[in-house]
Specification:
21 helices, 4-stranded antiparallel β-sheet, about 50% helix, about 10% strand, elongated, 10 strands, alpha+beta
Length: about 475
């Protein structure tokens, strides 16, 4: 056991008498230091009342009855040492009514260090018990890790783009409104990809989640609802931005990472948008609902959230939506329906009575709100057999299929490319238009093999004829 000497401090009780003008904030700050010192002492060895009392006596210089009472309360509250929860233990100590009597008249002369440990690890994630080991895991220095994690949200007030960890781009949504793309710069992006492959992807998602999951896709999502009498489609508003840093922190803590490491991992995967970027946001039209939504959107971007554009965000969003998926899957099962989710698209299908649908939608809205999400009511759609039932852009009336209008448009585009050339038909200045068309053809072929063969032939003719 190594003891680090500290500068001598005046007794706690004496300090209170000599500084009657100290604010509550200062007192709480002082108490936090004493509580942290005790937490470190308690965790630096055997977890018995004799051992806790002995180590606290080394730090505080006494073992009076109040100190013994506090140590025994700790053992009752924590049957096992919370080696991954130092801050939690310190907060618990400072709030306990035995804390002040225990430290009254003491002098904080020493600090006992301890080695943090991983908590319960329900999934096969790598063990990284300290911030130093986390920096080594990413092959960066501790100071560079602190800069990239940006736990203090310094990005919010940085005006020089060179000092930011993200680049920003406003994109207009097809259905109206604006979306902010937050793209991490190269070094942070590389770390996020490493984190995604080695940690995040090892945490399982709910079976109802189909978006951004290996082995699942929009087709598997749509297949869940093929041939149903009724399909109900709902949309989550601002899916990524509504997921806060606190929820991401909970994911990493549940995976077993100690508090300090979980804080750093959370900082690496969340972001706050600079004030200058928000000031450049295109204003909404002057409608009360849109102005309110614009205001709420700005508030979400001003606090640490999942950035849309980071490679870790889709997978982390799925993990944060686990509770939502679990509850909505249970709701669907209780009503004889099927449920699945693709990113922010929710779908229910089956044979519900017409009278039960409004109640179902209201329950979904309530559950989503309790789980930290909001339903975009303007995108809620009820589709019977007589309608074109579509989820995630896939027609599901009989089986997953490409809808006829989309097929006709793509076929006409390929024909025009064969006649006029790629550049003439690239009206939206797509940087890789041929690859874009190839992707659309492959998507169509995955949904309908017959149509896919026709489109592949047209694509080959279009790209080789000029």
């Amino acid at each position: 056991m190594r003891i680090t000497p500290l500068p001598r401090s005046r007794p706690h009780a004496q300090r209170d008498r000599s500084e009657p003008a100290a604010t509550n904030a200062v007192k709480k700050s002082i108490d936090a230091v004493w509580a942290q010192a005790l937490a470190y002492a308690y965790l630096d060895g055997d977890w018995t009342d004799e051992a806790l009392i002995r180590r606290s006596a080394l730090v505080l210089g006494h073992s009076r009855p109040a100190m013994k009472r506090l140590a025994r309360r700790v053992l009752r509250a924590y049957p096992r040492p919370p080696l991954d929860r130092t801050r939690e233990l310190a907060s618990w100590l400072a709030a306990n009514d035995a804390f002040r009597p225990a430290i009254s008249g003491s002098q904080l002369n020493h600090w006992l260090p301890f080695q943090p440990a991983m908590g319960h690890m329900p999934w096969p994630v790598p063990a990284i018990p300290t911030v130093g080991e986390l920096a080594h895991f990413f092959s960066v220095s501790v100071s560079e890790l602190a800069w990239l994690a940006d736990i203090q949200s310094l990005e919010r007030r940085v005006s020089d783009e060179r000092l930011r960890n993200y680049r920003y781009r406003w994109v207009r949504k097809a259905a109206g409104g604006m979306r902010l793309i937050e793209s991490p710069k190269q070094r942070l992006r590389e770390m996020q990809r490493h984190l995604l492959a080695t940690i995040v992807n090892r945490v399982p998602v709910h079976p109802a989640a189909h978006g951004f999951v290996r082995g699942r896709s929009a087709i598997t999502f749509a297949r869940e609802h093929s041939g149903a009498d009724v399909v109900i489609r709902l949309d989550l508003r601002d899916f990524f931005g509504s997921i806060t840093a606190g929820r991401i922190y909970g994911v990493f803590r549940t995976a077993g990472y100690p508090e300090s490491v979980a804080h750093s991992l959370t900082g690496l995967t969340t972001n706050v948008v600079p004030l200058a970027v928000w000031s450049d946001a295109p204003p909404p039209v002057q409608a009360t609902a849109q102005l309110n939504e614009h205001f709420l959107f700005g508030k979400r971007l001003a606090t640490p959230h999942l950035p849309q554009g980071a490679p870790t965000s889709p997978a982390l969003a799925n993990l944060c939506a686990h509770g939502l998926d679990r509850r909505l899957a249970g709701l669907a099962e209780s009503t004889g329906l099927h449920y699945s989710r693709y990113a922010d698209d929710l779908a229910f299908s089956g044979s519900p009575s017409r009278d039960s649908v409004p109640r179902l939608i209201e329950l979904v809205r309530s559950i989503a709100a309790e789980e930290g999400f909001r339903i975009n009511d303007s995108k809620t759609v009820l589709m019977g057999k007589g309608h074109c039932q579509r989820v995630a852009g896939v027609v599901v009336n009989r089986k997953p299929n490409l809808d006829r209008p989309a097929y006709d448009v793509l076929r006409a585009t390929l024909h025009n490319v064969a006649v006029n050339g790629l550049e003439a038909e690239n009206r939206r200045s797509h940087p890789r238009f041929a690859d874009h068309l190839a992707g659309q053809v492959s998507w169509a072929a995955s949904l309908n093999a017959d149509r896919g063969r026709v489109l592949r032939r047209l694509f080959t003719n279009a790209t080789t004829s000029r």
